[in-house]
Amino acid sequence: xxxxxxxxxxxxxxxxxxxxxxxxxxxxxxxxxLTADETIDAAGxxxxxxxxxxxxxxxxxxxxxxxxxxxGAHSALRGGYGSVNLMANTNPVVDTPEVYNDIMQxxxxxxxxxxxxxxxxxxxxxxxxWVDFDTIPSSVKFLSDDGHGLHRTDQxxxxxxxxxxxxxxxxIHEEDNEISPVDYRIAEDVDTxxxxxxxxxxxxxxHFCHVSTIDSxxxxxxxxxxxxxxxxxxxxxxxxxxxxxxxxNPPIRxxxxxxYLVQAIINGDVDAIATxxxxxxxxxxxxxxxxxxxxxxxxxxxxxxxxxxHQQSLSLVSQMMSYGPAQVLDYHKGLLSIGYDADIxxxxxxxxxxxxxxxxxxxxxxxxxxxxxxxxxxxKTIVNGHIKYDRLEEENNGIKD
Length: 401
Description:
By secondary structure, this protein is of the alpha/beta class. Helices cover about 30% and strands about 25% of the residues. The chain has helices spanning about 70-80, 95-110, 155-165, 185-200, 215-225, 235-240, 255-265, 280-285, 300-310, 315-330, 390-395, and strands at about 1-10, 15-25, 25-30, 40, 45-50, 50-55, 80-85, 115, 145, 170, 205-210, 230-235, 270-275, 345-355, 375-385, 385-390.
């Protein structure tokens, strides 16, 4: 058994001081004067549910010069994440049970973070022929052709009807590829508006990836107000950066967009904050590849935006980074409650950290935040009741690639 003592326990619903007792990967008691064989003293620290990311790219198989399951997992742990959901744009694409099962088995063997793997919607992500729905493994949580929109409206309508009938859920990168070369804002908005409407008319469960504009968020808000089965994520970089030319997809938007997304979070219209962790080599990034690594800076950015800049509670941070995304992925995680999975992060809010290349655990270093200093340092990440990341141990031994 493991006990975490003297910490301030914060989750989406609570904020109080207590000890927390863990056994067999579960939280079994919360109270005072708890004891166990192993003790962590969290005095002066924040104890939160480990973060859950609905949207990451670990590039494995096929692009492991950027990231692989192991380096991605270490990056997640260093950022306080206990669970991540992988996108399907690998090589080969995750469009057969064989590719899917290989990734899931290797993730299980690593025993670092909990990984779920999206399954492609279309074969080879080409948007022409759907995958064989009859052979999709039962453990698949979402389908996604992330990075590729669903382009034909008639085809999308028929797809949504099929998904609703089979109780399959889909994550969508909204982009009309005919409009995006001309106006990327409209390209995101028009497909988000369309798919919100189609979700309502078909009953298909749709999760909107990295919503970045005012009108796309308004479409999501409308869908929710009508009871449509839609959910949405925003990224740390889209609520922090404005009018930047650092290349991500969708692009960094205006300050008005940033302000609207933050207010949507505060109003309860956003289900999750997801990193869209997208590693690239230095050469690929210099050549224009869109994306940034986000797992190791996400908490610090979200804390800065929501707590420091907008005077919101740590409970809202936990809602957006733990409980909300856990709900999207149907995980029994994200709360510090008896019976919940013992995925926990310990944070020291009194320490600050300057983002440096040499301290990044990801194989890639494509982040616009190098040199920036943030409050909040991840001290320990516990997954399924076991300490998987320890800051002090990292400082003593160095980061392993």
